[in-house]
Design brief:
The structure holds two protein chains of two kinds. By secondary structure, chain A is mainly beta. Chain A has one domain: Immunoglobulins (Immunoglobulin-like), CATH 2.60.40.10. Helix content of chain A is about 0%, strand content about 50%. Chain A is built from no helices and eleven strands. By secondary structure, chain B is mostly beta strands. Chain B has one domain: Immunoglobulin-like, CATH 2.60.40. In chain B, about 0% of the residues lie in helices and about 55% in strands. In chain B, strand 9 and strand 10 form a beta hairpin. Classes of the chains: A mainly beta, B mainly beta. Chains A and B meet through strand 4 and strand 5 of A and strand 4, strand 5, strand 9 and strand 10 of B.
């Protein structure tokens, strides 16, 4: 049972435009969400996170939106740059600060930003 | 600067061999994790450890075991490697409070 779903395996956008990556989850116990970025032959690197008490978190060109009622989050990248081309993983956890340290990852979306 | 290192970037082994993958972190993190990444399947958790000598099964533990004798080191063991264990293996660590995990560069394992 896939608890974190990234339904678009790939996304292609033009440089300078907005990239929107989507993620849905089914477990209502998830209260902390993260986005990771992964280049080929490297480990994932943390990008941005959001707690369930917020509906938006912004860090430079990256903004994550959380819609708890729809169990949906999205990552916006504005403006997109060729160096943003990578696989983006959505991840979720429950019991933040408690005993559950596990992250559940989606399958990833390959973003390609064309010059 | 935080660091998670893995013993090998690339490894080629034969079916039936015993394989050790080592991971070391220098952040004094309590939690350590082993994942495998396969095309179309994302990151799947194999095992994790929340303290020295403690371990818990993840989503796909079959065919794997782990060892954590020291806080900074977490080993993944393939007792008898099989071709379906050909994959990218990623180690990660996190602190007690934060859920952000820091990943190593990965080990590309090929089992022939």
């Amino acid at each position: 049972d896939q608890q974190v779903k990234q339904n678009s395996p790939s996304l292609s956008v033009q440089e300078g435009r907005i990239s929107i990556l989507n993620c849905d989850y089914t477990n209502s116990m998830f209260d902390y969400f993260l986005w990771y970025k992964k280049y080929p032959a490297e480990g994932p690197t943390f990008l941005i996170s959001i707690s369930s008490i917020k509906d938006k978190n912004e860090d430079g060109r990256f903004t994550v939106f959380l819609n708890k009622s729809a169990k949906h989050l999205s990552l916006h990248i504005v403006p997109s740059q060729p160096g943003d081309s990578a696989v983006y993983f959505c991840a979720a956890s429950s019991g933040s600060g408690g005993s559950n340290y596990k992250l559940t990852f989606g399958k990833g979306t390959l973003l390609t930003v064309n010059p | 600067d935080v660091k998670v290192t893995q013993s090998s970037r690339y490894l080629v082994k034969r079916t039936g061999e015993k394989v050790f993958l080592e991971c070391v972190q220098d952040m004094d993190h309590e939690n350590m994790f082993w994942y495998r990444q396969d095309p179309g399947l994302g990151l799947r958790l194999i095992y994790f450890s929340y303290d020295v000598k403690m371990k818990e099964k993840g989503d796909i533990p079959e065919g794997y075991s782990v060892s954590r004798e020291k806080k900074e080191r977490f080993s993944l063991i393939l007792e008898s490697a099989s071709t379906n264990q050909t994959s990218m293996y990623l180690c990660a660590s996190s602190g007690r409070i934060l859920d952000e995990q820091f990943f190593g560069p990965g080990t590309r394992l090929t089992v022939l």
